[in-house]
Amino acid sequence: MDYIESKRRNDFTRKIALAAGATALFIFMLKWSSDISVSTKFSTHEPGVTHVLVTGGAGYIGSHAVLRLLKDSYRVTIVDNLSRGNMGAVKILQELHPEPGRLQFIYADLGDAAAVNKVFAENAFDAVMHFAAVAYVGESTAEPLRYYHNITSNTLLIVKTMAAHNVKTLIYSSTCATYGEPDKMPITEDTPQVPINPYGKAKKMAEDIILDFSKTSDMAVMILRYFNVIGSDPEGRLGEAPRPELRDQGRISGACFDAARGIIPGLKIRGTDYKTPDGTCVRDYIDVTDLIDAHVKALAHARPGKVGIYNVGTGRGSSVKEFVEACKKATGVNIKVEFLSRRPGDYAEVYSDPSKIKNELNWTAKYTNLEESLSIAWRWQKAHINGYDN
Ligand SMILES: NC(=O)c1ccc[n+]([C@@H]2O[C@H](COP(=O)([O-])OP(=O)(O)OC[C@H]3O[C@@H](n4cnc5c(N)ncnc54)[C@H](O)[C@@H]3O)[C@@H](O)[C@H]2O)c1
Predict the structure, then answer these.
(1) Which ranges does the record mark as transmembrane (predicted)?
(2) Do 282 and 313 touch, CB atoms closer than 8 A?
(3) Is the confidence at residue 152, as pLDDT, over 80?
(4) Could you read off the pLDDT of 22-69 as tens digits, one per residue?
């Protein structure tokens, strides 16, 4: 009896041990296989490879940045919600670099904390270039809360998530709109920042968040304050293709091209009574190829615990009238021009002093001929009547 009882107990213990062993093996295999399935080149740091998260990489400037980063052998992840960007641009970049581990696209909204955290948890980034933003001065005066949310609050979330996941380098897209309308030209990085529209204010607040955080961390930070960006890839692969519904908000180059193509009847110049040589606004136009070169140099010079703030402009202002003349020459079309009253939130004259970026990052603008930059952009526009066709 004792013998039978003890045998039963032994059998039972053996079965339990077997079951426990099998369960442990099963859990181990499950974990191993799931690790394998999520482990990609993007999710692990690789010596000698710098993985850059490009927010807004489907947009105008972001897509040009991705093109250059891929050319320079960086690993790139684009995060974009396609609210304003073009999947067509992403497809072109993917076709140029189909090799595994070069480029991935993640559809996500940077206002969604859980989605942003997931992106950082599943990928091993070395640096972030934060381009994503809504970026129209006129729209910002009409929809200020949208701008504070999209620019300021989303930047706060990016910085917080970078810190949580130990991502150490941030290159931030800021703007000369943070300076407002200074008394003295040219604008240096020490010119007081007194923005006069919600777009400039939202960007200035985002800068402040980044700068205050940088005092408490060893994050490497580069803030680039762009002036007016024009042009496109000289090899004609990418261009500027804003949504048709944003045409009215438009930047001047887009409006010139639309007028040259007959999509709009002509150009509206808003404001002819500014205190400038010909009465129209004066701006510093920086070619996107030069702008992206400044980002690559900023990334190369970024150092832990250090902050760099740089104007990215040519140092030379051109009036709207001069711009329109250059556009007429570049397109070969005698664009009709209508002169209207000022647009709210605009300022008379803005041009940069780019000497700091020249001295510290060895960067200078090379594409400084308006007509040439516009001719390059026009070639793309003519060949892409419907933008990226999306
Ligand atoms: N274009 C200029 O002249 C200029 C001048 C100064 C500064 N900037 C700055 O450069 C950056 C890029 O501007 P751009 O001209 O390429 O604009 P863009 O509209 O072409 O690109 C912005 C991209 O960000 C994406 N995006 C916007 N909100 C998002 C969100 N919540 N989540 C995910 N993606 C989002 C859009 O879909 C778009 O692809 C912006 O930060 C802008 O403020 C631009």
Answers:
(1) 12-32
(2) no
(3) yes
(4) 444 444 443 333 334 457 999 999 999 999 999 999 999 999 999 999
For the domain spanning 41-383, the CATH number is 3.40.50.720
62 C-beta closer than 6 A to ligand 1? yes
Position 142 pLDDT exceeds 90: yes
The ligand 1 atom at the shortest distance from the C-alpha of residue 134 is 27
Write out the two tokens for 320.
């709207």
83 CB within 6 A, ligand 1:
yes
Ligand 1 atom nearest residue 240's Cα: 20
CA-nearest of 110, 115, 78, 111 to 93 is: 78
* Pocket test residue of 86, 90, 173, 205 for ligand 1, highest count of atoms within 8 A of CB: 173
Closest residue by Cα to atom 2, ligand 1, is 229
The full set of domain ranges for the chain reads 41-383
| Helix/strand/coil for 145 | helix
Ligand 1 pocket, residue 173 CB under 6 Å: yes
Residue closest by Cα to atom 28 of ligand 1: 133
- Rounded CA separation 229/231 (Å): 7
Q: What is the pLDDT of residues 329-366, one digit of tens each?
A: 999 999 999 999 997 767 789 999 999 999 999 999 99
Atom of ligand 1 nearest to the CA of 242: 20
Q: Which residues share a beta bridge with 80?
A: 107
State the distance from the centre of ligand 1 to the C-alpha of 36, rounded, in angstroms.
35
Task: Tell me the CA–centroid distance for residue 55 and ligand 1, in Å.
Answer: 9
Q: d(Cα 390, Cα 370) in Å, to the nearest integer?
A: 29
pLDDT in tens, 215-268: 999 999 999 999 999 999 999 999 999 988 887 776 889 999 999 999 899 998
Q: pLDDT by residue (tens digit) across 260-304? A: 999 899 998 999 999 999 999 999 999 999 999 999 999 999 999
Query: What are the catalytic residues?
Result: 199
- In eight-state DSSP terms, residue 180 is B
Q: Which residues of 355-369 are buried (b: 16+ CB within 10 A; e: fewer)?
A: ebbeeebebebebee
